[in-house]
Amino acid sequence: MSSSQKTVDYIVGQMVAAGDVSFKKMFGEYGIFCGDKMVALVCDDKLFVKPTIRGRAYIGDVVEAPPYPGAKPSFLIPTKKLEDVEWLSGLIKIAAEELPRPVKKKKVNRKKAGEY
After folding, report:
1. Residue 87 placed within a domain
2. DSSP 20
3. Angle at 45 between CA 95 and CA 104, to 5 degrees
4. Is 91 within the bounds of a domain?
5. Residue 109 domain-assigned (yes or no)
6. Which of 23, 41, 82, 83 could form a disulfide linkage to 67, CB 3.0–4.6 angstroms apart?
């Protein structure tokens, strides 16, 4: 089951104090970005934040679960916590600060069939 646009809009709106927060539809679900870093996923209308050391301390009683089958566990954020703009924005800021920058992939120059 995929997430609804309404849910994603609400969750991203609750992260307003974290800075430059955006989302991208990915394989029927959504990636949440803070700046250029993917910090969370919305899958099945649930928020999964990428795990960090400071994020774990910030949350306290952490519940981890994979956002989709075969994925690494992430912090599953309780629905009640989504209502707290300050708390949620703080968690997203922490994740963005602690997660590494994405690695830019080099373009591979591929030749078409028949070219030498």
Report:
1. yes
2. S
3. 40
4. yes
5. no
6. 41
- Give the dihedral sign, CA 54/58/87/29: positive
**Contact yes or no for 91/55 (Cβ under 8 A):** yes
Structural domains counted in the chain: 1
CB 39 within 8 A of CB 89: no
CATH number at residue 16: 3.30.1460.30
In which domain, by residue range, is 80 found?
5-98
> Which has the closest alpha carbon to 67: 10, 29, 21, 13?
29
Using CB atoms within 10 A of its CB, is residue 101 exposed (0-12), middle (13-18) or buried (19+)? Answer: exposed
Predicted pLDDT at 115: 59
Single-letter amino acid, residue 57: A
For the stretch 98-109, pLDDT in tens is 999 888 777 776
67 DSSP assignment: S
Asked if residue 103 is part of any domain, the answer here is: no
Burial class (CB in 10 A: 0-12, 13-18, 19+), 95: buried
pLDDT-above-90 percentage for the chain: 80
